Amino acid sequence: MNASLKDQAAIDKARELLAEAGVWDVETDLDCLIDRYLERRCKDRARNEFMLAVHERCNRIPLGHIVGIADFDELPLVVGTGVFIPRPHSQIIHKWLENEHEVPQGSGVLDLCSGSGAIGLAIAKRRPDLKVTCVEYDDIAFQYLTRNISRLAGWAVKAEALKADLWDWQAFSQFNGSVALIVANPPYVPEQQTILPEWEEHHPYVSVYSGDDGLDLTRLIIKQAKQLLQSNGWLVIEHGESQEESVRTLFSDAGFSLVRTIIDKDISDTTGSSVITVGCQLI
């Protein structure tokens, strides 16, 4: 089937799905979606929008906030102003899972500070047998999270969303002692540190900064994990390169075993390399 026939088949299927969903003006919506994703019909308008986007990027607006989509582990996630844009750095978590650690079949997984759901949804895509729950507290971020979960259900990627404050221990009581894996990419930039304007000016403050040393939320997650993880359960936290010794100490002081920091120089940019610290709760 050539490209044009494939496009027509997709359009026919889309028309059918939109009608079944009760969309009130199927053809108008369909035309807009075709113009956005399959074929730009007005080239002048396309060029004008292109230059508007370029000017926004020159003002250091994050690319994901401009185009509304961020690709993460081959998942097209909906993002926008008010939510942290997932970075390739976080894929180190999935490399560790795939190459070094096998989560038992059917286990429960928590993705804390989930934001748009990138890490948890990527785990759910790779391991559909796992029971993944993405946890987010911020109202705007939670809207993106639930939208991405619903959106990717069309690809048979399944996860649950939980709106909960990490400081509210009672909100997690249902998971006590039952989780095999906790993953998190919490905010970890020290409050006085100057960073690129994409993050400093155009991302939510609470998604970037976390106390004087950047580790306030990391400390909380480590404490929470002690309550939530089952015996031999694993905690994986992403952080900055300069924080590796401090984070390992926090893991060890909390009683985690087999603690080590993994740095992936292959996944790096001007903000540094990809870094996680992992530890096991042996009971």
From TrEMBL:
<dbReference type="InterPro" id="IPR029063">
    <property type="entry name" value="SAM-dependent_MTases_sf"/>
</dbReference>
<dbReference type="InterPro" id="IPR002052">
    <property type="entry name" value="DNA_methylase_N6_adenine_CS"/>
</dbReference>
<protein>
    <recommendedName>
        <fullName>peptide chain release factor N(5)-glutamine methyltransferase</fullName>
        <ecNumber>2.1.1.297</ecNumber>
    </recommendedName>
</protein>
<keyword id="KW-0949">S-adenosyl-L-methionine</keyword>
<dbReference type="GO" id="GO:0032259">
    <property type="term" value="P:methylation"/>
</dbReference>
<dbReference type="InterPro" id="IPR007848">
    <property type="entry name" value="Small_mtfrase_dom"/>
</dbReference>
<keyword id="KW-0489">Methyltransferase</keyword>
<dbReference type="GO" id="GO:0102559">
    <property type="term" value="F:peptide chain release factor N(5)-glutamine methyltransferase activity"/>
</dbReference>
<dbReference type="InterPro" id="IPR050320">
    <property type="entry name" value="N5-glutamine_MTase"/>
</dbReference>
<feature type="domain" description="Methyltransferase small">
    <location>
        <begin position="100"/>
        <end position="194"/>
    </location>
</feature>
<dbReference type="InterPro" id="IPR004556">
    <property type="entry name" value="HemK-like"/>
</dbReference>
<keyword id="KW-0808">Transferase</keyword>
<dbReference type="GO" id="GO:0003676">
    <property type="term" value="F:nucleic acid binding"/>
</dbReference>
<dbReference type="Pfam" id="PF05175">
    <property type="entry name" value="MTS"/>
</dbReference>
